[in-house]
């Protein structure tokens, strides 16, 4: 349109005419307990809203959830609706919303949203016609969260956002001082996608080429199907990327692979970033994604693995990507995606409380401290 600047999508709202307010998170819930999870303005888990870094600092925020609604890097539309789908996923299970939640996590016995100050930080600006420029804005907003002392929980969007997310981590913590733990059906280390260097299947190679991290500090879990090719596998081995294929899980069992991955992730950098592609789950549990691959992990396998990584290692940020809720009328994909994010926050709360022993479970709930007279044989 005539007179409209090309980057109008990135221009912030002019708030000069608004009343002054003290910085800090804003709770936009009218009631402590709404009439149902379907009621009220849908922020992530009912969290308060933070508008800028001053709000994050003034609120002493531990976790800031931010959306990165892009899907131009995937070649398939739909993942841009992921942040909205994940923000409303809790509407289908009404208990335990946000900062007002009082119910404990039934495996570890803590109330994570009571231990951590969590906010919804809105969405990063996105140019729906330009994936590269969108990455610039995503990187700036994620870096903003980290510099304010909070941990970013990024809701994708397609998996190309790993590039700006990890780059933002390296901007703050230093190149080579951040490792990545990557759950995915696919290796995502290709050189190009139909000639395009930036896509949801090339971001690992770009991150290594741009020297944001080292291959030896990259741990992958869940690869299966028909990729990588032999040449890509050779490149990954040259970079010392640690890849745990589903074939390894099939041979040795998940428990053994969990221990290997935790040990590898803990060996090297001071900080870790967790990247979870929803297609690491079997399509039976996550049909709403652009590139489903049969033979994946189950929720019962993935959830404790995620929780353990965040409790037992120094994960300080995470992304959840490739949720395409419009492809799943059952809401199952978004619901399981929400639970992944909840397990991350639970793991972070455990670490804050000093509960970092391997595979901690609440004694009363796991049968270690049975009810008197209960038969545990």
List keywords for this structure.
32% helix, Arginase, Chain A, alpha/beta, 377 residues
Question: Could you write a compact summary of the structure shown?
Answer:
With 377 residues, this protein is an alpha/beta fold. Helices cover 32% and strands 13% of the residues. It has one domain (24-29, 36-364): Ureohydrolase domain (Arginase, Chain A, 3-Layer(aba) Sandwich), CATH 3.40.800.10.
Question: Can you put this structure into words, describing what you see?
Answer:
This protein has an eight-stranded parallel sheet with strand order 2-1-3-8-7-4-5-6, with helices on both faces. The termini are far apart. The protein has helices at 53-58, 82-88, 112-115, 131-147, 162-173, 203-209, 230-238, 246-252, 254-265, 299-312, 332-352, 363-366; strands spanning 63-68, 118-123, 151-156, 178-183, 218-223, 242-245, 271-277, 315-321. It is an alpha/beta fold and 377 residues long. The protein has a single domain (24-29, 36-364), classed as Arginase, Chain A (3-Layer(aba) Sandwich), CATH 3.40.800.10. Helix 8 crosses helix 9 (254-265). The protein is 32% helix and 13% strand. Strand 4 (178-183), helix 6 and strand 5 form a beta-alpha-beta unit. It contains twelve helices and eight strands.
- SSE ordering: HEHHEHEHEHEHEHHEHEHH
- What is the CATH T-level topology? Arginase, Chain A
Would you count the extended β strands for me?
8
Structural class of the secondary structure composition? alpha/beta
Question: What's the N-to-C terminus distance?
Answer: 74 Å
Kindly report the name of the CATH homologous superfamily: Ureohydrolase domain
Task: Using the 3D structure, state the CATH architecture.
Answer: 3-Layer(aba) Sandwich
- Low-confidence runs: none
Rg over CA atoms, rounded to whole Å, is: 20 Å
Quote the beta fraction: 5-15%
The overall pLDDT average reads 91
Query: What global shape is seen?
Result: globular
Helical proportion, percent range: 25-40%
Write down the domain tally. Answer: 1
How is the biggest beta sheet arranged? 8 strands, parallel
């Amino acid at each position: 349109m005539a007179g409209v600047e090309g980057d109008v999508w990135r221009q912030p709202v002019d708030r000069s005419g608004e009343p002054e307010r003290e910085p800090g998170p804003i709770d936009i819930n009218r009631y402590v307990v709404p009439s149902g999870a379907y009621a009220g303005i849908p922020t992530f888990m009912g969290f308060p809203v933070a508008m800028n870094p001053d709000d994050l600092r003034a609120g002493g925020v531990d976790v800031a959830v931010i959306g990165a609604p892009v899907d131009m890097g995937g070649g398939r539309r739909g993942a841009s609706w992921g942040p909205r789908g994940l923000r409303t996923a809790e509407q289908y299970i009404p208990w335990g919303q946000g900062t007002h939640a009082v119910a404990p996590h039934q495996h570890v016995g803590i109330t994570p949203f009571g231990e951590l100050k969590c906010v919804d930080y809105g969405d990063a600006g996105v140019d729906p016609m330009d994936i590269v420029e969108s990455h610039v804005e995503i990187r700036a907003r994620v870096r903003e969260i980290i510099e304010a002392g909070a941990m970013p929980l990024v809701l994708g969007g397609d998996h190309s956002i790993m590039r700006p997310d990890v780059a933002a981590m390296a901007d703050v913590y230093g190149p080579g001082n951040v490792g990545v733990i990557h759950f995915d059906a696919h290796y995502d280390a290709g050189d190009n996608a139909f000639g395009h260097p930036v896509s949801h299947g090339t971001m690992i190679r770009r991150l290594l080429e741009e020297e944001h991290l080292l291959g030896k500090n990259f741990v992958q879990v869940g690869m299966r199907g028909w990729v990588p090719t032999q040449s890509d596998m050779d490149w990954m081995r040259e970079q010392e990327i640690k890849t745990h294929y589903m074939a390894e899980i099939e041979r040795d069992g998940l428990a053994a692979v969990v221990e290997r991955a935790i040990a590898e992730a803990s060996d090297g950098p001071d900080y870790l970033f967790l990247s979870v592609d929803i297609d690491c789950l079997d399509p039976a549990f996550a049909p709403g994604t652009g590139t489903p691959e049969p033979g994946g992990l189950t929720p019962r396998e993935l959830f404790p693995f995620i929780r353990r990584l965040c409790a037992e290692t120094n994960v300080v940020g995470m992304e959840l990507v490739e949720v395409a809720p419009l492809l799943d009328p059952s809401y199952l994909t978004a619901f399981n995606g929400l639970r992944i994010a909840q397990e991350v926050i639970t793991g972070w709360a455990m670490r804050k409380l000093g509960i970092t022993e391997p595979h901690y479970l609440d004694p009363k709930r796991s049968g270690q401290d049975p009810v008197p007279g209960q038969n545990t044989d």
